[in-house]
C-alpha cells in the first residue's frame, strides 16, 4: 500500500520545484519594482492641478483596478504582439503584474501624500525650496513610511497571484507541481510542497516588510 505522503518522492521533486520557485520570485520582485515605481508616478500625476493630466490618469487607474489581472495578461500576451510589442512570457507576466498592482499602489501612495500636513508645503514654499527638493526632502519622507505596510500587503498578494502566469505559458511554482503530478500521477507531494513554500515565503516577506517599516520609522521618526 502506497503511503499518502511519500517523503522520498517529495525530496526527489524538491529541486525541480526549486527551479520553478526562482521564476516565481523573479516575477514577484520585478513586478513589485514596477508597481511601486509606476504607482508613485501615477499618484503624483493624479494629484496634478491640471485636469488634462489628472483625469486621464485617474481613468487609467480605475480601469486597471476594475478589470481582472488575467484579462490584462491575455491582452498583453496575445494582442500586443500584433501591435508590434512582443515580449517573452516571463517579461509579459512581470509587466502585467507591475501594471496591475501599480494602480493599487498609486491609491496607497495618494493616501500617504494627502496625509502630509499642508503646513509642511507652505513652510517649504517659504524657504524657497524647488518643487523637486520639496518632494524629495519634505513630502516623500513623510508620505512613504506610513504606507509601507499597505505596500507590503500588495507584495504578498502579488506573490500569491503568480500562479496566473501559467495562463501565458510561464512555468512557475504551481504549474511545475501540476506538471509533476500529471507525469507521476502523484499530486499530494507537489501540491503540499507548493503550499508550504508559498506559506514560508509569504511569512518571510511579511517579516521583511515589518523590519523595513521599523527601520523607516527610526530614520524618519523626527520628520513630522
Automatic annotation (TrEMBL):
The chain crosses the membrane at residues 20-45, 75-103, 191-209. Gene3D superfamilies: MetI-like. SUPFAM superfamilies: MetI-like (SSF161098). One of its GO terms (molecular function) is transmembrane transporter activity. It is a multi-pass membrane protein. Keywords: Amino-acid transport, Cell membrane, Membrane, Transmembrane, Transmembrane helix, Transport. The keyword Kinase does not apply. PROSITE patterns: ABC_TM1. GO terms for cellular component: ATP-binding cassette (ABC) transporter complex. Residues 17-209 form the ABC transmembrane type-1 domain. InterPro entries: AA_ABC_transptr_permease_3TM, ArtM/GltK/GlnP/TcyL/YhdX-like, Ectoine_EhuD, MetI-like, MetI-like_sf. Pfam families: BPD_transp_1. One of its GO terms (biological process) is amino acid transport. CDD domains: TM_PBP2. It is found in: Cell inner membrane; Cell membrane. Belongs to the binding-protein-dependent transport system permease family. HisMQ subfamily. NCBIfam families: ectoine_ehuD, HEQRo_perm_3TM. This is Ectoine/hydroxyectoine ABC transporter permease subunit EhuD. It comes from Bordetella genomosp. 1. The lineage of its organism: Bacteria, Pseudomonadati, Pseudomonadota, Betaproteobacteria, Burkholderiales.
